[in-house]
Amino acid sequence: xxxxxxxxxxxxxEPVWLVADxxxxxxxxxxxxxxxxxxxxxxxxxxxxxxxxxDRHAIMALGARNTGxxxxxxxxxxxxxxxxxxxxxxxxxxxxxxxxxxxxxxxLAR
Length: 110
Hints:
The protein is α+β, with helices and mostly antiparallel strands. The protein has helices at 5-9, 22-25, 30-34, 77-96, 99-109, and strands at residues 16-19, 43-51, 56-64. The protein has five helices and three strands; from the N terminus they run H-E-H-H-E-E-H-H.
């Protein structure tokens, strides 16, 4: 996703957004997040992943086939913890494979 896409896709500034029914309350760009499975993801959790090396965010989307699997008010600490671990690992992998520098230079070249 491009720069600013995370903020555009989320309807909230919170790190985790739980949607009970994607047909009623789907984020912008739900098709880009779930691609050909967008119609199958009836309920979803959208989690911001901080990529500190790029000073950007990514999105992790978890979908369920049934509505109501993810609802406002559910505890989100585990999802936030997973997002923190994934963000740290992605930063490490990007740095390790030289991708971080290429991503930053590609962004600056725009």
